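Note to self: keep these together.
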Amino acid sequence: MTVTTDLTNHFLIAMPSLADPNFSRTVTYVCEHTEEGAMGIVINRMTDLQLADILDQMDIEDIRPEAAEIPIYNGGPVQGERGFVLHAGEQRWDSTLPIADGISITTSRDILEAMAHGEGPDEFMLALGYAGWMASQLETELADNAWLSGPADKQILFSTPSTDRWQAAASLLGVDMNLLSGSVGHA
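Structure:
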């Protein structure tokens, strides 16, 4: 199966029937989607960690108090120790990959140092780990109705409370997740 639609800069919204505990009731922001596979960040699963915990492990000092309390999300089950910063704006750091107009992902230490000192991006979210799909895997899951997909929205990505993102992303498509059954059937 080949990639017919590039889902980069789209949301994957878990259908109620998706039972995988890593993805049940999640919204994943797709950062890259090619014939080789796909990579995304789950945007609505907060951890108990805050930025101060990460900065402490990295020996980054002189942390502004407001930076210390920034929440960390569980970005997915792959490489859970690796950090990702999804952010808006045109600013670039050592390891920044532009995703779409005004949205990038950065994995380098310098963005965390900037954030600790109040000099980072204005709109962002931090995650540990990511979601990954091998070639054709995501297309198969979409065909099996595990996900809804639709264009991403910066407001949901950076401003909507994490507990509201699943329904908010579905609402962009005119879907009320509360009205969908968790049962799967085929006609």
